[in-house]
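Contributing new records

If you add data, match the layout below exactly. Sequence lines come first and carry their own label; structure lines follow with theirs. Keep one chain per record. Anything else will be rejected by the validation script.
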Amino acid sequence: MYRSTFRQIREKCGVSLDKAAKGIVSPSTLSRWERGKGEIYFDNVLKLLKKLEINLNEFFGANYHSFNEEVAQRINAAYADADSVKLKKITIIQLKKYEKTQQLNTLFLAASASNFYFELTRECIFPINYQIKLRNILSDIENWDNFSINLFNHSINFLPVGQTFNIAKRIINRIEEIQGFNSDNFYTAISAILNALVKLIVRDAKCAEKLVDRIQGITVPATFLYLNVKRAFLIELLNYRMYRNYSIKRMNQIVLFLRKMNADNLAASLCRLFKQVKELDN
């Protein structure tokens, strides 16, 4: 379990319970958590990792990076191929691994695969008890690093409207700090914010409109071409959702542009999204 992994690393570093827990939780709380006898807010787990200078790869296991990389690639490939059968299989496998090991990385991978499965089929196969667990984990997070943003991005289909909006807003409030860290984190953050907007357009157009007001204030570098194109499409789609007889000419132009740029996967996903929104009015 990841709790015992933390304990092993802490002891290997020669850090006492008192020192590790100071300013975050009580030593007794940390001790119970390490032994699987109690819970700690996920944000406090992140603080404990930071205090001991433990990276997430080390925390979740020695093979965390290579394991996640390989599975994540299979998830992305299955989604690109619109292979819902493979996504469902990956979800089931990762859920079984989580139930056996209680390693959070396997739960996150299951969430990612089932999130994409939902995109393709509109069927939710991620158990409600694990949906609630993810919601609670995300509620605990204050410092939105690349890991946390990715977790949000791959859990959006399982979150209530209010939580989706509030998390996206919190990330936007820190976007300058995120951008200053590195361009990869900034790209991840904008991608997550736009994916949150997608969900809000479908579920709550008024809430989506509030988010758009904030998104439009973000300067996205021209080098992030597809993010800028996707943002433009989503703003047009929201207008179509809110105002009857709104022209779809601009959206058609964007899709044609993406196809000319050989961005067929993005073009196809935007077309699926338009079809979904159109069906809401029927």
